[in-house]
Amino acid sequence: MARPEVLDRLKEAEREADEIVAEAEREREERVEEARREADEIREEAREEAEQLTEERLTEAREEIEVDREEILEEGRTEREQLEARAAERRDAVVESVVERFEEAVDAQT
């Protein structure tokens, strides 16, 4: 083979090698970009899942708090009613005692 032919073949081989390298680089960039897109999708799905779980937990917590609140309010109502009943029971006795003391005080002054 003549020297010019060898040089031409070497140049052709280098050109082909450059094309192969360039194609490999393009493919690598495409794979990297696809991996980034997939990672972004995974992150977005994870964020949405976390947001949904957070909302579900908040809803559950609010429901539990509302149940606890109603129980506390009911206990307060019951206690108030009991106190009112005891006060009503004692009212007559207190009024009678006050009247007696008043009469005693009036009698003592006369």
Largest sheet: none
Percentage of residues in helical conformation: over 70%
Structural class: mainly alpha
Got a strand count? 0
Total DSSP helices: 1
Number of domains: 1
Q: Write down the overall mean pLDDT.
A: 93
Stretches where pLDDT falls below 50 for ≥5 residues? none
Euclidean distance between termini CA atoms: 153 Å
Our estimate of the beta-strand percent is under 5%
Strand/helix succession: H
**Shape category:** rod-shaped
Rg (CA only): 46 Å
Topology:
Layout (H helix, E strand, L loop, with lengths): L2 H107 L1
What does this structure look like?
There is one protein chain. By secondary structure, the protein is mainly alpha-helical. The protein has one domain. Helix content is 97%, strand content 0%. The protein has one helix and no strands. The longest helix is centred in the middle third of the chain and has 107 residues, at 3-109. The N and C termini lie far apart (153 Å). The model has no long low-confidence stretch (mean pLDDT 93).
